[in-house]
Amino acid sequence: MFQPSRMIALALPLGFAAVLSAAATTALAHTEATPVQATTALSGPDANTRITEPYARLVARDAWFWAWPMVNVYNRRLANTKAPEQGLVGGVLPMSPFNRVTMLSDYIKPEQRAIACPNQDVVYGAGYMALDVSPVVIQVPDFGERFWVYQFSDLRTDSIAGLGAMYGTKPGFYLVVGPNWQGEVPKGIAQVIRARSDAAFIGPRVFQDDTPQDRQAVQEVIQGINVYPLAEYDGTLKRRDWRKLPIFPKRADGTGETRWVRPEVFFDQLPLVLDLAPPLAGEEARYAQVLAVIAAAQKDPALKQAMIDEAEKADRELVDPLLQFRNWGIALPHHWTTITNGARFGTDYFTRTAVAKSNILVNAPNETRYFYQDLDAAGMRLNGANTYRVTFAKGQVPPVKGFWSLTAYDAAHFFVPNPLNRYSLGTKNKDLKINADGSLTFYVQAESPGADKESNWLPVPKAADFSLFLRAYWPEEEITQGRWTPPAVDKSVIASNN
Protein backbone atom coordinates (compact mmCIF):
# COMPACT_ATOMS: atom_id res chain seq x y z
CA MET A 1 0.00 0.00 0.00
CA PHE A 2 1.28 3.44 -0.92
CA GLN A 3 2.56 5.21 2.19
CA PRO A 4 3.23 8.95 1.68
CA SER A 5 5.96 10.67 3.61
CA ARG A 6 4.59 12.45 6.65
CA MET A 7 5.31 16.02 5.63
CA ILE A 8 3.51 19.32 5.89
CA ALA A 9 3.75 21.84 3.07
CA LEU A 10 4.52 25.21 4.57
CA ALA A 11 4.34 27.31 1.44
CA LEU A 12 0.61 28.07 1.69
CA PRO A 13 -0.14 31.74 1.00
CA LEU A 14 -2.70 32.80 3.58
CA GLY A 15 -6.20 32.12 2.29
CA PHE A 16 -5.05 29.99 -0.65
CA ALA A 17 -4.14 26.33 -1.10
CA ALA A 18 -0.51 25.37 -0.80
CA VAL A 19 1.80 23.80 -3.30
CA LEU A 20 3.79 20.91 -1.94
CA SER A 21 7.36 21.49 -0.93
CA ALA A 22 9.98 20.17 -3.33
CA ALA A 23 10.78 17.36 -0.93
CA ALA A 24 7.14 16.32 -0.63
CA THR A 25 6.69 16.41 -4.39
CA THR A 26 9.74 14.22 -4.87
CA ALA A 27 8.48 11.75 -2.28
CA LEU A 28 5.10 11.54 -4.00
CA ALA A 29 6.66 11.16 -7.43
CA HIS A 30 9.02 8.31 -6.58
CA THR A 31 7.23 6.30 -3.91
CA GLU A 32 6.11 2.88 -5.14
CA ALA A 33 3.34 0.69 -3.75
CA THR A 34 4.63 -2.07 -1.49
CA PRO A 35 4.52 -5.48 -3.19
CA VAL A 36 2.16 -8.02 -1.67
CA GLN A 37 2.11 -11.79 -1.64
CA ALA A 38 0.08 -13.39 -4.39
CA THR A 39 -2.23 -14.93 -1.82
CA THR A 40 -3.00 -11.56 -0.19
CA ALA A 41 -6.20 -9.78 -1.24
CA LEU A 42 -5.33 -6.45 -2.79
CA SER A 43 -6.89 -3.16 -1.68
CA GLY A 44 -6.86 -1.22 -4.92
CA PRO A 45 -4.81 -1.85 -8.05
CA ASP A 46 -1.36 -3.42 -7.98
CA ALA A 47 1.46 -0.90 -8.33
CA ASN A 48 2.31 -2.20 -11.80
CA THR A 49 -1.24 -2.05 -13.13
CA ARG A 50 -1.80 0.45 -15.92
CA ILE A 51 -4.51 2.89 -14.81
CA THR A 52 -6.87 4.04 -17.55
CA GLU A 53 -7.96 7.67 -17.75
CA PRO A 54 -11.69 6.90 -17.30
CA TYR A 55 -10.93 4.93 -14.14
CA ALA A 56 -8.67 7.67 -12.79
CA ARG A 57 -11.40 10.23 -13.47
CA LEU A 58 -13.94 8.09 -11.61
CA VAL A 59 -11.68 7.76 -8.58
CA ALA A 60 -10.77 11.46 -8.70
CA ARG A 61 -14.40 12.54 -8.79
CA ASP A 62 -15.30 10.30 -5.88
CA ALA A 63 -12.27 11.37 -3.82
CA TRP A 64 -12.93 15.06 -4.44
CA PHE A 65 -16.33 14.68 -2.85
CA TRP A 66 -15.59 12.55 0.22
CA ALA A 67 -12.19 14.11 1.04
CA TRP A 68 -13.18 17.75 0.39
CA PRO A 69 -13.87 18.53 4.08
CA MET A 70 -10.57 17.01 5.23
CA VAL A 71 -8.52 18.94 2.68
CA ASN A 72 -10.45 22.07 3.64
CA VAL A 73 -9.48 21.76 7.31
CA TYR A 74 -5.94 20.72 6.36
CA ASN A 75 -5.41 23.95 4.42
CA ARG A 76 -6.86 26.07 7.19
CA ARG A 77 -4.38 24.29 9.43
CA LEU A 78 -1.51 25.02 7.03
CA ALA A 79 -2.45 28.69 6.96
CA ASN A 80 -1.87 28.84 10.68
CA THR A 81 1.71 27.61 10.30
CA LYS A 82 2.50 31.03 8.81
CA ALA A 83 1.55 32.79 12.05
CA PRO A 84 4.69 34.02 13.85
CA GLU A 85 2.64 34.35 17.04
CA GLN A 86 -0.96 34.59 18.20
CA GLY A 87 -2.73 37.44 16.45
CA LEU A 88 -5.54 38.60 14.19
CA VAL A 89 -5.47 38.59 10.39
CA GLY A 90 -6.67 42.01 9.29
CA GLY A 91 -7.86 42.57 12.85
CA VAL A 92 -10.78 40.16 12.34
CA LEU A 93 -9.63 36.53 12.14
CA PRO A 94 -7.87 34.61 14.95
CA MET A 95 -4.64 32.92 13.90
CA SER A 96 -1.91 31.20 15.88
CA PRO A 97 0.98 28.75 15.54
CA PHE A 98 0.31 25.06 16.18
CA ASN A 99 -0.61 24.04 19.73
CA ARG A 100 -1.88 27.51 20.64
CA VAL A 101 -5.25 29.21 20.59
CA THR A 102 -6.19 32.78 19.75
CA MET A 103 -9.39 34.31 21.10
CA LEU A 104 -11.41 37.19 19.77
CA SER A 105 -12.55 39.66 22.41
CA ASP A 106 -15.99 40.44 20.92
CA TYR A 107 -18.32 39.10 18.26
CA ILE A 108 -16.67 38.16 14.98
CA LYS A 109 -16.62 41.09 12.58
CA PRO A 110 -18.95 41.02 9.57
CA GLU A 111 -16.24 41.62 6.97
CA GLN A 112 -14.40 38.31 7.53
CA ARG A 113 -14.62 35.78 4.70
CA ALA A 114 -12.55 32.87 6.05
CA ILE A 115 -15.47 30.85 7.41
CA ALA A 116 -19.09 30.83 6.26
CA CYS A 117 -22.07 31.13 8.62
CA PRO A 118 -20.36 32.63 11.68
CA ASN A 119 -22.61 33.70 14.53
CA GLN A 120 -22.72 36.88 16.54
CA ASP A 121 -23.80 35.29 19.79
CA VAL A 122 -20.44 34.08 21.06
CA VAL A 123 -16.85 35.17 21.43
CA TYR A 124 -14.91 32.76 19.23
CA GLY A 125 -11.45 31.29 19.50
CA ALA A 126 -9.49 29.01 17.18
CA GLY A 127 -6.36 26.89 17.25
CA TYR A 128 -4.85 23.87 15.51
CA MET A 129 -2.94 21.07 17.20
CA ALA A 130 0.03 19.01 16.06
CA LEU A 131 0.05 16.34 18.74
CA ASP A 132 3.00 14.53 17.19
CA VAL A 133 5.03 17.63 18.07
CA SER A 134 3.75 17.90 21.64
CA PRO A 135 0.80 17.05 23.87
CA VAL A 136 -1.29 20.13 24.56
CA VAL A 137 -2.75 21.59 27.74
CA ILE A 138 -6.22 23.17 27.50
CA GLN A 139 -7.21 25.61 30.22
CA VAL A 140 -10.85 25.80 31.30
CA PRO A 141 -11.51 28.83 33.52
CA ASP A 142 -14.52 29.24 35.80
CA PHE A 143 -17.33 30.40 33.50
CA GLY A 144 -19.86 30.64 36.33
CA GLU A 145 -23.40 30.68 34.90
CA ARG A 146 -22.24 31.81 31.45
CA PHE A 147 -22.78 29.34 28.60
CA TRP A 148 -19.64 27.97 26.97
CA VAL A 149 -18.45 25.07 24.83
CA TYR A 150 -15.09 24.14 23.34
CA GLN A 151 -15.47 22.62 19.92
CA PHE A 152 -12.82 19.94 19.62
CA SER A 153 -12.65 18.13 16.29
CA ASP A 154 -10.42 16.18 13.91
CA LEU A 155 -9.64 16.67 10.23
CA ARG A 156 -12.93 14.97 9.38
CA THR A 157 -14.79 17.70 11.34
CA ASP A 158 -15.95 14.98 13.76
CA SER A 159 -15.97 15.69 17.49
CA ILE A 160 -13.12 14.26 19.56
CA ALA A 161 -14.31 15.02 23.09
CA GLY A 162 -16.96 17.02 24.92
CA LEU A 163 -15.90 20.08 26.90
CA GLY A 164 -18.62 22.53 27.86
CA ALA A 165 -21.45 23.61 30.10
CA MET A 166 -23.68 20.73 28.91
CA TYR A 167 -21.05 18.22 30.04
CA GLY A 168 -20.60 19.71 33.49
CA THR A 169 -16.92 20.26 32.71
CA LYS A 170 -15.09 21.63 35.74
CA PRO A 171 -12.53 24.43 35.66
CA GLY A 172 -9.01 23.11 35.39
CA PHE A 173 -6.33 21.76 33.08
CA TYR A 174 -7.03 19.13 30.41
CA LEU A 175 -4.27 17.29 28.57
CA VAL A 176 -4.72 16.33 24.91
CA VAL A 177 -2.38 13.63 23.59
CA GLY A 178 -1.95 11.83 20.28
CA PRO A 179 -2.91 8.19 19.71
CA ASN A 180 0.60 6.89 20.39
CA TRP A 181 1.71 9.12 23.28
CA GLN A 182 3.06 7.18 26.28
CA GLY A 183 4.42 9.97 28.50
CA GLU A 184 3.83 10.78 32.16
CA VAL A 185 0.79 12.81 33.13
CA PRO A 186 1.80 15.64 35.47
CA LYS A 187 -0.03 16.42 38.69
CA GLY A 188 -2.97 18.77 38.47
CA ILE A 189 -4.33 17.49 35.15
CA ALA A 190 -8.10 16.92 35.45
CA GLN A 191 -8.44 14.62 32.44
CA VAL A 192 -6.39 13.15 29.62
CA ILE A 193 -8.05 13.27 26.19
CA ARG A 194 -6.55 10.90 23.64
CA ALA A 195 -7.20 12.05 20.08
CA ARG A 196 -7.64 9.55 17.25
CA SER A 197 -4.98 11.30 15.17
CA ASP A 198 -2.22 13.85 15.64
CA ALA A 199 -4.20 16.64 13.95
CA ALA A 200 -6.97 18.43 15.83
CA PHE A 201 -8.88 21.73 15.94
CA ILE A 202 -10.12 23.56 19.02
CA GLY A 203 -12.65 26.39 18.91
CA PRO A 204 -13.84 27.89 22.21
CA ARG A 205 -17.27 29.55 22.05
CA VAL A 206 -18.42 31.75 24.94
CA PHE A 207 -21.87 33.36 25.00
CA GLN A 208 -22.08 37.14 25.25
CA ASP A 209 -25.12 39.39 25.60
CA ASP A 210 -25.37 42.22 23.10
CA THR A 211 -24.80 44.91 25.72
CA PRO A 212 -21.81 47.13 26.61
CA GLN A 213 -21.90 45.77 30.15
CA ASP A 214 -21.54 42.15 29.09
CA ARG A 215 -18.87 42.98 26.52
CA GLN A 216 -16.83 44.22 29.43
CA ALA A 217 -17.80 41.42 31.83
CA VAL A 218 -16.85 38.65 29.39
CA GLN A 219 -13.25 39.86 29.24
CA GLU A 220 -12.46 38.64 32.75
CA VAL A 221 -13.71 35.16 31.83
CA ILE A 222 -12.07 34.67 28.44
CA GLN A 223 -8.67 35.83 29.69
CA GLY A 224 -8.42 32.44 31.40
CA ILE A 225 -8.87 30.52 28.12
CA ASN A 226 -5.53 29.25 26.88
CA VAL A 227 -3.87 26.37 25.02
CA TYR A 228 -0.13 25.61 25.06
CA PRO A 229 2.42 22.77 24.78
CA LEU A 230 2.82 20.46 27.77
CA ALA A 231 6.35 21.76 28.44
CA GLU A 232 4.85 25.11 29.48
CA TYR A 233 2.47 23.60 32.03
CA ASP A 234 3.27 24.58 35.63
CA GLY A 235 -0.09 24.15 37.33
CA THR A 236 -0.93 27.84 37.29
CA LEU A 237 -3.70 29.46 35.25
CA LYS A 238 -2.10 31.46 32.45
CA ARG A 239 -4.10 34.57 31.60
CA ARG A 240 -4.04 36.80 28.54
CA ASP A 241 -5.88 39.98 27.58
CA TRP A 242 -7.16 39.04 24.12
CA ARG A 243 -7.93 42.68 23.33
CA LYS A 244 -4.19 43.23 22.95
CA LEU A 245 -3.09 41.15 19.98
CA PRO A 246 -0.82 41.92 17.02
CA ILE A 247 -2.55 42.55 13.71
CA PHE A 248 -1.35 40.59 10.69
CA PRO A 249 -1.78 41.92 7.12
CA LYS A 250 -5.26 41.61 5.67
CA ARG A 251 -5.68 39.36 2.68
CA ALA A 252 -7.73 40.26 -0.39
CA ASP A 253 -11.07 38.51 0.15
CA GLY A 254 -13.92 38.18 -2.31
CA THR A 255 -17.64 37.98 -1.68
CA GLY A 256 -17.63 34.26 -0.88
CA GLU A 257 -15.66 32.05 1.48
CA THR A 258 -11.90 31.84 1.02
CA ARG A 259 -11.24 28.95 -1.33
CA TRP A 260 -9.51 26.38 0.83
CA VAL A 261 -9.73 23.40 -1.57
CA ARG A 262 -8.15 23.71 -5.03
CA PRO A 263 -8.15 21.05 -7.77
CA GLU A 264 -4.64 21.86 -9.00
CA VAL A 265 -3.02 20.75 -5.71
CA PHE A 266 -5.72 18.50 -4.26
CA PHE A 267 -4.12 15.23 -5.34
CA ASP A 268 -0.68 16.34 -4.17
CA GLN A 269 -2.08 17.15 -0.74
CA LEU A 270 -4.45 14.22 -0.32
CA PRO A 271 -1.80 11.59 0.64
CA LEU A 272 -0.55 13.93 3.37
CA VAL A 273 -4.11 14.51 4.58
CA LEU A 274 -4.92 10.81 4.69
CA ASP A 275 -1.71 10.18 6.62
CA LEU A 276 -3.04 12.57 9.29
CA ALA A 277 -6.50 10.99 9.30
CA PRO A 278 -6.24 7.20 9.59
CA PRO A 279 -9.07 5.30 7.86
CA LEU A 280 -12.22 4.48 9.73
CA ALA A 281 -13.37 0.88 9.79
CA GLY A 282 -14.23 -0.08 6.24
CA GLU A 283 -12.33 2.80 4.65
CA GLU A 284 -9.06 0.95 4.11
CA ALA A 285 -9.94 -0.05 0.52
CA ARG A 286 -11.12 3.48 -0.28
CA TYR A 287 -7.81 4.89 0.92
CA ALA A 288 -5.78 2.28 -0.96
CA GLN A 289 -7.69 2.87 -4.18
CA VAL A 290 -7.18 6.63 -4.33
CA LEU A 291 -3.55 6.43 -3.20
CA ALA A 292 -2.76 3.87 -5.90
CA VAL A 293 -4.28 6.11 -8.58
CA ILE A 294 -2.42 9.16 -7.24
CA ALA A 295 0.84 7.17 -7.34
CA ALA A 296 0.19 6.30 -10.97
CA ALA A 297 -0.66 9.92 -11.80
CA GLN A 298 2.63 11.13 -10.31
CA LYS A 299 4.38 9.23 -13.13
CA ASP A 300 1.95 10.31 -15.86
CA PRO A 301 1.31 14.08 -16.27
CA ALA A 302 -1.58 13.51 -18.67
CA LEU A 303 -3.30 11.22 -16.17
CA LYS A 304 -2.80 13.73 -13.38
CA GLN A 305 -4.22 16.54 -15.52
CA ALA A 306 -7.28 14.41 -16.25
CA MET A 307 -7.81 13.96 -12.51
CA ILE A 308 -7.51 17.70 -11.94
CA ASP A 309 -10.00 18.31 -14.72
CA GLU A 310 -12.43 15.84 -13.16
CA ALA A 311 -12.03 17.48 -9.75
CA GLU A 312 -12.93 20.85 -11.28
CA LYS A 313 -16.07 19.31 -12.76
CA ALA A 314 -16.98 17.61 -9.49
CA ASP A 315 -16.57 20.90 -7.66
CA ARG A 316 -19.00 22.66 -9.99
CA GLU A 317 -21.48 19.84 -10.32
CA LEU A 318 -21.44 18.16 -6.90
CA VAL A 319 -19.99 20.41 -4.21
CA ASP A 320 -20.96 23.96 -5.25
CA PRO A 321 -24.74 23.25 -5.14
CA LEU A 322 -24.39 22.16 -1.51
CA LEU A 323 -23.80 25.77 -0.49
CA GLN A 324 -27.58 26.19 -0.72
CA PHE A 325 -29.37 24.78 2.30
CA ARG A 326 -32.43 23.73 0.29
CA ASN A 327 -30.37 21.11 -1.57
CA TRP A 328 -29.67 18.85 1.41
CA GLY A 329 -30.59 18.06 5.01
CA ILE A 330 -33.54 16.46 6.78
CA ALA A 331 -36.77 18.10 5.63
CA LEU A 332 -38.92 19.74 8.31
CA PRO A 333 -42.24 21.65 8.18
CA HIS A 334 -42.29 25.05 6.43
CA HIS A 335 -39.25 24.17 4.25
CA TRP A 336 -36.76 24.22 7.11
CA THR A 337 -34.03 21.56 7.10
CA THR A 338 -31.72 20.26 9.81
CA ILE A 339 -29.07 17.63 10.58
CA THR A 340 -28.91 15.20 13.47
CA ASN A 341 -25.31 13.97 13.15
CA GLY A 342 -23.29 17.18 13.20
CA ALA A 343 -19.65 16.56 14.15
CA ARG A 344 -20.53 12.85 14.22
CA PHE A 345 -20.59 12.27 10.49
CA GLY A 346 -18.51 9.09 10.41
CA THR A 347 -18.90 7.74 6.88
CA ASP A 348 -21.91 9.92 6.00
CA TYR A 349 -19.83 11.60 3.31
CA PHE A 350 -22.76 13.44 1.77
CA THR A 351 -23.85 15.31 4.90
CA ARG A 352 -20.29 15.97 6.01
CA THR A 353 -19.39 17.58 2.67
CA ALA A 354 -22.68 19.50 2.51
CA VAL A 355 -22.06 20.96 5.96
CA ALA A 356 -18.41 21.67 5.17
CA LYS A 357 -19.39 23.59 2.04
CA SER A 358 -22.17 25.61 3.65
CA ASN A 359 -21.29 25.99 7.36
CA ILE A 360 -18.17 24.05 8.31
CA LEU A 361 -17.10 23.18 11.87
CA VAL A 362 -20.49 22.65 13.47
CA ASN A 363 -20.96 21.38 17.01
CA ALA A 364 -22.27 17.97 18.03
CA PRO A 365 -26.11 17.73 18.11
CA ASN A 366 -26.35 17.64 21.91
CA GLU A 367 -24.29 20.86 21.96
CA THR A 368 -26.10 22.69 19.17
CA ARG A 369 -28.96 21.98 16.80
CA TYR A 370 -28.99 23.89 13.53
CA PHE A 371 -32.01 24.75 11.40
CA TYR A 372 -31.52 26.03 7.85
CA GLN A 373 -33.83 28.05 5.60
CA ASP A 374 -33.67 29.38 2.02
CA LEU A 375 -37.43 29.54 1.32
CA ASP A 376 -40.56 31.27 2.54
CA ALA A 377 -43.73 29.48 3.61
CA ALA A 378 -44.85 29.23 -0.04
CA GLY A 379 -41.57 27.64 -1.10
CA MET A 380 -40.20 30.74 -2.84
CA ARG A 381 -36.58 31.87 -2.49
CA LEU A 382 -36.05 34.40 0.30
CA ASN A 383 -35.18 37.78 -1.21
CA GLY A 384 -34.69 41.23 0.31
CA ALA A 385 -37.11 42.76 -2.19
CA ASN A 386 -39.83 41.27 0.03
CA THR A 387 -40.68 41.59 3.69
CA TYR A 388 -41.18 38.60 5.99
CA ARG A 389 -42.33 37.79 9.48
CA VAL A 390 -41.21 34.94 11.70
CA THR A 391 -43.59 34.56 14.65
CA PHE A 392 -42.95 32.25 17.59
CA ALA A 393 -46.24 31.43 19.33
CA LYS A 394 -46.50 32.04 23.06
CA GLY A 395 -44.20 29.64 24.86
CA GLN A 396 -42.75 28.37 21.57
CA VAL A 397 -39.39 30.10 21.32
CA PRO A 398 -36.64 27.49 20.90
CA PRO A 399 -36.43 25.40 24.12
CA VAL A 400 -32.77 25.53 25.18
CA LYS A 401 -30.61 25.49 28.29
CA GLY A 402 -27.98 27.62 26.57
CA PHE A 403 -29.14 30.22 24.06
CA TRP A 404 -30.84 30.52 20.69
CA SER A 405 -30.70 32.94 17.76
CA LEU A 406 -32.01 33.58 14.27
CA THR A 407 -29.32 34.87 11.89
CA ALA A 408 -29.56 36.34 8.37
CA TYR A 409 -26.87 35.75 5.73
CA ASP A 410 -26.42 36.72 2.11
CA ALA A 411 -26.45 34.03 -0.60
CA ALA A 412 -22.79 33.24 0.12
CA HIS A 413 -23.57 32.85 3.85
CA PHE A 414 -21.89 36.00 5.11
CA PHE A 415 -23.08 39.19 6.77
CA VAL A 416 -24.08 42.28 4.79
CA PRO A 417 -23.56 45.61 6.58
CA ASN A 418 -26.76 47.30 7.79
CA PRO A 419 -27.61 50.47 9.74
CA LEU A 420 -27.98 48.64 13.06
CA ASN A 421 -24.87 46.49 12.64
CA ARG A 422 -27.23 43.67 13.60
CA TYR A 423 -27.06 40.21 12.06
CA SER A 424 -29.06 38.05 14.46
CA LEU A 425 -31.78 38.19 17.08
CA GLY A 426 -32.36 35.94 20.06
CA THR A 427 -31.33 35.33 23.65
CA LYS A 428 -28.59 37.97 23.54
CA ASN A 429 -31.09 40.76 22.76
CA LYS A 430 -32.57 42.18 25.95
CA ASP A 431 -35.05 44.64 24.41
CA LEU A 432 -37.20 42.31 22.27
CA LYS A 433 -40.89 43.26 22.32
CA ILE A 434 -43.49 40.59 23.00
CA ASN A 435 -46.88 40.80 21.26
CA ALA A 436 -50.10 41.24 23.27
CA ASP A 437 -50.93 37.54 22.89
CA GLY A 438 -47.52 36.51 24.22
CA SER A 439 -46.04 35.64 20.83
CA LEU A 440 -42.75 37.00 19.51
CA THR A 441 -42.45 38.36 15.97
CA PHE A 442 -39.24 39.08 14.07
CA TYR A 443 -39.43 41.45 11.10
CA VAL A 444 -37.09 40.07 8.47
CA GLN A 445 -36.62 42.75 5.82
CA ALA A 446 -34.20 45.22 4.25
CA GLU A 447 -35.85 48.41 5.51
CA SER A 448 -36.82 49.34 9.05
CA PRO A 449 -40.35 48.20 10.02
CA GLY A 450 -40.71 51.43 12.02
CA ALA A 451 -39.25 52.77 15.24
CA ASP A 452 -41.77 50.89 17.38
CA LYS A 453 -40.75 47.54 15.84
CA GLU A 454 -37.04 48.16 15.31
CA SER A 455 -35.98 46.17 18.37
CA ASN A 456 -37.38 43.08 16.60
CA TRP A 457 -35.98 43.91 13.16
CA LEU A 458 -33.58 41.46 11.53
CA PRO A 459 -32.03 43.32 8.57
CA VAL A 460 -31.40 41.45 5.30
CA PRO A 461 -29.67 42.41 2.02
CA LYS A 462 -31.62 44.73 -0.27
CA ALA A 463 -33.21 43.09 -3.33
CA ALA A 464 -30.93 40.06 -3.05
CA ASP A 465 -31.33 36.41 -2.06
CA PHE A 466 -30.59 35.59 1.56
CA SER A 467 -30.81 32.69 4.00
CA LEU A 468 -31.87 32.25 7.60
CA PHE A 469 -30.15 30.08 10.17
CA LEU A 470 -31.60 29.20 13.58
CA ARG A 471 -29.20 27.96 16.28
CA ALA A 472 -30.24 26.22 19.47
CA TYR A 473 -27.29 25.83 21.84
CA TRP A 474 -27.67 23.12 24.50
CA PRO A 475 -31.09 22.13 23.15
CA GLU A 476 -33.82 20.66 25.31
CA GLU A 477 -35.37 17.27 24.51
CA GLU A 478 -38.21 18.90 22.58
CA ILE A 479 -35.63 19.81 19.97
CA THR A 480 -33.36 16.77 20.13
CA GLN A 481 -36.39 14.45 19.90
CA GLY A 482 -37.89 16.41 17.01
CA ARG A 483 -40.96 17.69 18.85
CA TRP A 484 -40.05 21.35 18.21
CA THR A 485 -39.31 22.86 14.81
CA PRO A 486 -39.12 26.51 13.70
CA PRO A 487 -42.19 28.45 12.55
CA ALA A 488 -42.83 29.44 8.94
CA VAL A 489 -41.15 32.41 7.31
CA ASP A 490 -44.25 34.28 6.14
CA LYS A 491 -44.01 36.74 3.28
CA SER A 492 -45.92 39.92 4.06
CA VAL A 493 -45.90 43.11 1.99
CA ILE A 494 -43.78 43.29 -1.15
CA ALA A 495 -41.68 46.43 -1.10
CA SER A 496 -42.44 48.05 -4.47
CA ASN A 497 -39.69 50.67 -4.23
CA ASN A 498 -36.74 48.26 -3.86
UniProtKB/TrEMBL annotation:
<feature type="domain" description="DUF1254">
    <location>
        <begin position="98"/>
        <end position="229"/>
    </location>
</feature>
<dbReference type="InterPro" id="IPR010621">
    <property type="entry name" value="DUF1214"/>
</dbReference>
<keyword id="KW-0732">Signal</keyword>
<feature type="domain" description="DUF1214">
    <location>
        <begin position="368"/>
        <end position="477"/>
    </location>
</feature>
<dbReference type="InterPro" id="IPR037049">
    <property type="entry name" value="DUF1214_C_sf"/>
</dbReference>
<protein>
    <submittedName>
        <fullName>DUF1254 domain-containing protein</fullName>
    </submittedName>
</protein>
<dbReference type="Pfam" id="PF06863">
    <property type="entry name" value="DUF1254"/>
</dbReference>
<feature type="signal peptide">
    <location>
        <begin position="1"/>
        <end position="29"/>
    </location>
</feature>
<dbReference type="Pfam" id="PF06742">
    <property type="entry name" value="DUF1214"/>
</dbReference>
<dbReference type="InterPro" id="IPR010679">
    <property type="entry name" value="DUF1254"/>
</dbReference>
<dbReference type="InterPro" id="IPR037050">
    <property type="entry name" value="DUF1254_sf"/>
</dbReference>
